[in-house]
Amino acid sequence: MSENRLRKLLEQNRRLHEQLELPRIATSEASRSLITYVTQTRDYLVPSVWGTPPEDRWTPKRSGLACCNIL
Question: pLDDT > 70: what percent of the chain?
């Protein structure tokens, strides 16, 4: 019983050491990076901010009527 418990503790200790060695960045740096990304990356799902997306030449042109297929 004690050998099994020791093995579990050693495994948990190894996993905790792996987590400790993961690279980390400061919260201020992560926040700055997120703000930069959000302000420089266009998100056309928010048309009030970024406007409508440009025409995509690879999508087929649709006629004036939209169609919907229901299966």
Answer: 82
Is pTM beyond 0.70? Reply is no
Place of tokens 């440009």: 54
Measure the CA–CA gap between 28 and 17, rounded to whole angstroms: 25
Q: What is the largest CA-CA distance in the chain?
A: 75
**CA end-to-end span of the chain:** 60
Instruction: Report the SS3 class of residue 68.
Output: coil
Domains of the chain: which residue ranges? 2-41
CA angle 46, 25, 40 (to 5 degrees): 25
Closest CA to 50 of 58, 38, 62, 59: 38
Quick one: which of 39, 62, 60 has its CA closest to 49? Answer: 39
